[in-house]
Each structure stands twice: as structure tokens, then as C-alpha cells.
Amino acid sequence: MAPPRNVVKIAVQMRDAIPQLIQLDQAKPLAAVLKEVCDAWSLPHSERYALQFADGHRRYITENNRTEIKNGSILCLSTAPDLEAERLLRGLQSESCEGRREALRHLVLLAPDMTFTREVISRDGLQRLGSIIEDGDDLGEVLALALRAFLELMEHGVVSWETLGIPFVRKVVCYVNMNLMDASVQPLALGLLESVTLSSPALGQLVKSEVPLDRLLVHLQVMNQQLQTKAMALLTALLQGASAAERKHMLDYLWQRNLRQFIYKNIIHSAAPLGDEMAHHLYVLQALTLGLLEPRMRTPLDPYSQEQREQLQALRQAAFELEGESLGAGLSADRRRSLCAREFRKLGFSNSNPAQDLERVPPGLLALDNMLYFSRHAPSAYSRFVLENSSREDKHECPFARSSIQLTVLLCELLHVGEPCSETAQDFSPMFFGQDQSFHELFCVSIQLLNKTWKEMRATQEDFDKVMQVVREQLARTLALKPSSLELFRTKVNTLTYGEVLRLRQTERLHQEGTLAPPILELREKLKPELMGLIRQQRLLHLCEGTLFRKISSRRRQDKLWFCCLSPNHKLLQYGDVEEGVGPPAPESLPEQLPVADIRALLTGKDCPHVREKGSGKQNKDVCELAFSVSYDHGEEEAYLNFIAPSKREFHLWTDGLSALLGSPMGSEQTRLDLEQLLTMETKLRLLELENVPIPEQPPPVPPPPTNFNFCYDCSIAEP
Question: What value does the mean pLDDT take over residues 532-550?
């Protein structure tokens, strides 16, 4: 007879004792369960004990999380969390260094558990750890363990970072600024200061004033990837917390100290692979640096500014200097003004007064900056562009100024200038760190590309918008390749000619649309069931291979890793926590199992419980599209297994696979694309013999039957 649904069969173990195999009634109070377990081992005072999961982080079992206990779970009997917290905090006050070290090690192991954390904090555990960190009697393992335990306890959000004292923060700053320091201490100290800077503006200002930028540069130059990542994290946190003027001053100083060159040579092109966290911080650094262009982009030209009028005249003179001097000699003031107006029109301004063209924001003064940079750093290319187009027929000339203004807007959109930083994005461009004045240099390449594309399209003034659409596509496609240098970008974008863009468009259109002939549509409909079966098989195989997922905390982008996979017989989801840097574990080593038969439903996006609990913050908005959960029966209650996919593709593969297991249709965007690709390939294979044969829209009519059927040929009659 099957046991009731609220009863699970588990094992309970204790050191130096024979394990117990019991049937746990989830409806029974936990205190009563503990009493029965302790009585079986003849242990008095059951209130002094608690149950823990034997695997993973050995979390304590409470009334809130007891539903996570499943058939076959292994629990262990240990000291109650309040007594354990009391014991370890007494150990922190031990006169023996080894005693303090051992207490800290156990504290670090138990700190990820919320129940234990609350007991430690209620007994002033953070203050005791803070005293160890502030005293700094041992700058080695004891200090590193104290910092790690402090970070783990604070990670739960029970206590705000803003409550930390100034002396404590200054002491942590001292550890960052020390030259001779244990290699395990400084990354932890940097991580603590990063959390302080992001959470408390007041303490962030203290960190900014106490930690010199030169010190962070020293840490970045140490060939220790963990130390480099934490130093870059603190650097970007300080930049994000600074005002616009302070940020500009800090970035100017960092570029003067050759930070860009060091990042390009020793981090981006390092032999070790670039981690996700470092990629995010490089993205933030790129976004903040490009953000310095926003004030110029938002500022229109002031027609009464003497400096800006002189810049416009310098732009005109760089193109028409010799011509203007020879023709303008001896002319009156009115004639000179008329000549200047004509030259500005030749330069490509829509109005004789160029200030009117540059009043538009964006791009504002940033377009003028780009044009001046091009004229000064590539004078021959600038003169050739202007003079070549001014000598063409009016209808085929490419207007330099108008093109520059629109191109500046386009580059700002492609590079997201002025947009807030994403909490999770890693989309930085290596080319940005390989070149000084990268935005202006990119403009110089792009304006020459625009002129080249204009000639290839044989465009006229009426085709201006079409040319800009093609240039946008050329730039976007090339930037998506993430070229490592400006020269490589120049090479790739110049090979992407107008003809190549048309070919790519046609190819994509054929892949997307296919043919609409009714016979082909009928064939595709007949092929769909078989191909959907292939896709379903692939999705289930992917689930069997398994995926590493990240748990998302309330403060940091990424937290611990866990692994989940489908059993080969498609009957169980197996999962468990794994360590950072360790490969995917074998399925049989995973401690947790969820029978597929117990799964009720698949939830995605905002319907997931772990998304609803986190509210509507920036991080939640970023991960909402990657979140999914499965609800399952756990006793009489409904429980959830929550996921946050590492990428959109993984999200589609997992939700498709789980839908297939539940007998639901696979409706993801990835399934639609895969089905379309398979249908296109299979249709082309079936129609190879009909190549160049027109397929009619309607089947040919069947001819009427003959008037008689006397046309049978007698094969027995031999021919003469």
C-alpha cells in the first residue's frame, strides 16, 4: 500500500551512531519529529538539536523549508542553530589563534543559511566579526575568514550596509591600501568596499576619498584574475557613484595612467578566458566613458558663441582655404559673406547659416566635434570628400555636413550613448579599449564608408534616407562581430559593400519567407509533425546534458551555481549546488530529485514566485525574461523549483523541453526558428529535381475522359 502523500521516507544520520530510516509525516510539528529522532538514540533535551540537510550547505530544516524534503533525502542531526551560533561566537573570543580560526571556518560554512544568520546577528555576531577585522591582529587566514564570514552574513540583507561605522570602513580601506597583504584578503576587502559603495552614498564618498585610483591600478596590474576582477568592480562602483564632473576627472586621470592600454593588452587579450563578471565591468566602464559625450550631444550650437563660430570657420577653411583666398582677395564684406555662405552650402549644410543645422539635439555639438576631428586628423580624406562631392552634379553630391550630423546620431544609437547601464549586460567592444578617442575615430571610418556606399548606390539627394539605412546595417553588422581593433573594423566594414548587403538581405528574406506556392505550403504542413518530433527529441537531449544555472541575490548580479539535468529515462529532474569553476557533475552525484510525474505546471516571467518576491527593481527587470519555474506536488502543498537561465537560448531550450515533458506545445521563439530552418532545408531537398521548373499556383486541370476506350494496344501481335 502506498504511503500517504504527506509522508516521505528519509534517512537521519548522526556521528558515531547507526542511521535511522524513518517515515516523516509533514503534517507533524517539527519539534515532535525531533523528539522521536532523539528518543530513538536515547538523547535527552531534544530542543538542543536540529535537523540539517546532509548535502550542499547543510541548511537547517525549519517549518518554512521542510517541504523541500523529498523521498530519499538524507538529513543529519546536529546542534540547534541558536546553540551553535552561541558556541561559535564564544570560539571567536578564544585566546588560542587556532580556536578562533576553527570557529571562523565553521561560521563561513554555516553563514549561507538564513536561520543560522539570524541567530548570529541577534547575538551581536557582526560586531564581534567587525572587532576582529578592525583589530587586524592576524593579517592572514583569520582575517580572510572573518571578511568572508562578514560578507556572507551581510549578503542576506538582514542588516543594511549603511549601518557600518566609519572606523570599520577605514580599516577595510587600510587592507586594500597595504602593500604586503595576504593574497586572499585583498579581494575580499575590495568586494566588501564595492558593496558599501553601491549601497551607501555617504560611505561610498568615504571609500572614494580613502582609496586612491593609483592603488586600484596597482591591483589591476597584478596577474591575479580574482584580484583584478574585484578591483575593476570597485573602480566601476566608484565611477557610478561619482557626479558627472568627478567621473570625467577620474576617467581622464585613468586614461593618462594608461589604463586603457593595460586593459586591452593584459585583460582582454590575456591567455586566461575573460570571466562574465569582468566582461560586465568592462561594459560598464565603456558605457560610462561614452556617457561623457552626452553633454555635448544634448547641447545645441549657440550662434552667439565666438568659439563655436570660429570652429565652423575653421571647418570651412580646411576645405576651401586656397580657393577662398584666391577668390576672396579684394572683395567687399558682402561679397565675402556671400562666398562663405556658398562654401557652407558646398560643405553640405542645408542652410547658408550652419548654426541652424546644428541646433538639433541630438547630436548637437557632438556632430561639430566629429567634423572638426575628421578635418584635423584626416585632412587629406576630409578635403577629398568635400571637393569630390562639390564637383559632382548637384543631384549626385553627398552632403558632408548633413551626412555627419545624421551619422553622429546613428553612432550614438548603436553605441547607446547616454543610456543607463544595464545590471547584467556584458556587451562591450574590445575595439573601444584598443584606440584613443575611439568614438571620433569610429566616426572617421564611418563617414568614409558612407561616401563609398553613396557612390556604390549612385544615390541622389532623394536617396539620403536609404543610404543611411544601408550604412546603419553595415555598421551594426560589423559591430556585432566585435572586431578587436579599429583597423580590423575598417577592413570588415569596407568588405561589406552595398551589393553584399543586398545579398545578405535577400538570403535572410528567403530564409524567413520561403515560397508561398500552395503545393509548397501543403508539403511543409505534411513535414511539420516529423520535424517537430526531431525538435522535441533535441530539446530532451539538451535537458539530459544539463545546464549550470546561477542563483540571483538581492544585491549582486550573480551568486552561487547549481546544476540541473533530466535523467536518461526522462522520469526525474536531478539537481544540486556546484562550486565555481568546477565542471558539470555526473547526474548520479546530484543530491536532489524531482519526479516528472509530480510536476503540475510550467511558469515563466512575472508568474514565477522568485520574480514576484524580488519586486520591480532594475535587476528583476533584467532577469524577468530569463526566469521560469516548475510547480510540483509536495505532500498536500504546492512547491516550486525556480530557474534563471544563463541566456535567452537556454531559456527557450529548457522551457521547450519541460513543455514537451508535460505534453504541452513547444511555443518558444527558438522552436519557431528551428522549425522554419528545418522546413526550409527539407523542402529544398525534396524539390531538388524540380530546380528551375516553375511550380504553378493551382494544380493543372484533369482532362475529361475520352469518348471511347478503344485504344488498347495488343502486344501479342507481332509487327511486320
Answer: 92
Q: Does 492 or 553 have the greater pLDDT score?
A: 492
Least confident range of 143-152, 365-374, 418-427: 418-427
3-state secondary structure of 614: coil
Report all structural domains of the chain as residue ranges with CATH numbers, in order of start: 7-79 (3.10.20.90), 89-287 (1.25.10.10), 298-321+335-509 (no CATH), 531-673 (2.30.29.30)
CA distances from 542 to 55, 182, 563 (A): 26, 43, 13
Q: From residue 674, how far is each of 518, 544, 571, 652 by CA, in Å?
A: 22, 19, 26, 11
Interatomic CA distance for residues 13 and 74, integer angstroms: 8
Provide long-range contacts, Cβ within 8 A and 24+ apart, for 338-346.
Answer: 340/313, 340/316, 343/316, 343/319, 344/312, 344/316, 344/401, 346/319, 346/320, 346/386, 346/390
Q: Are 51 and 42 in contact (CB under 8 A)?
A: no
Enclosing H/E stretch for 352: none
R_g over Cα of the chain: 35
- Stretch among 50-54, 345-349, 646-650 having the lowest mean pLDDT: 345-349
| Vertex 61 angle, CA 595 and 146, to 5° | 120
SS3 667: coil
Pairing of strands 7-13, 20-25: antiparallel
Closest CA to 543 of 659, 402, 665: 659
Give the mean model confidence (pLDDT) for residues 589-595.
88
Query: What is the amino acid identity at position 546?
Result: G
Do the beta carbons of residue 229 and residue 557 sit within 8 Å? Answer: no
For the stretch 675-681, contacts whose Cβ atoms lie closer than 8 Å and that sit 24 or more positions apart, written own/partner, are 675/528, 675/531, 675/532, 675/535, 676/511, 676/512, 676/514, 677/511, 678/531, 678/534, 678/535, 679/514, 679/524, 679/527, 679/528, 679/531, 680/511, 680/514
Give the CA count within 13 Å in the CB-facing half-sphere of 562: 20
The predicted-structure confidence for 35-77, as pLDDT tens digits, reads as follows 989 998 989 988 899 998 887 777 899 888 888 888 888 999 9
246-284 pLDDT tens trace: 999 999 999 999 999 999 998 998 888 888 999 999 999
Cα(442)–Cα(664) distance, rounded to whole angstroms?
A: 49
Confidence at residue 380, expressed as pLDDT on a 0 to 100 scale: 92
Give the CB-side neighbour count of residue 469, counting CA atoms within 13 A: 8
Give the mean model confidence (pLDDT) for residues 426-445. 92
Alpha helices in 329-437 (DSSP H): 333-346, 365-377, 379-390, 400-414
Q: Quote the cell numbers at residue 546.
A: 544539463
Which residue, among 375, 301, 387, has the nearest Cα to 343 in the 3D structure? 387
**Comparing C-alpha atoms, which of 395, 378, 398 is closest to residue 387?**
398
* Model pLDDT for residues 205-230, shown as the tens digit of each residue: 999 999 999 999 999 888 888 999 99
Nearest CA to 104 out of 82, 87, 121, 118 is that of 87
Share of the chain above pLDDT 90, in %: 42
In the chain, DSSP finds a helix count (H) and a strand count (E) of: 29, 11
3, 25 Cβ separation under 8 angstroms: no
Distance CA 328, CA 342 (A): 12
Can you give the three-state secondary structure of 463-499, one letter per residue? Answer: HHHHHHHHHHHHHHHHHHCCCCCHHHHHHHHHHCCHH
Q: Inform me whether the pLDDT recorded for 385 exceeds 50.
A: yes
Q: With contact defined as beta carbons under 8 Å apart, do 537 and 545 qualify?
A: no
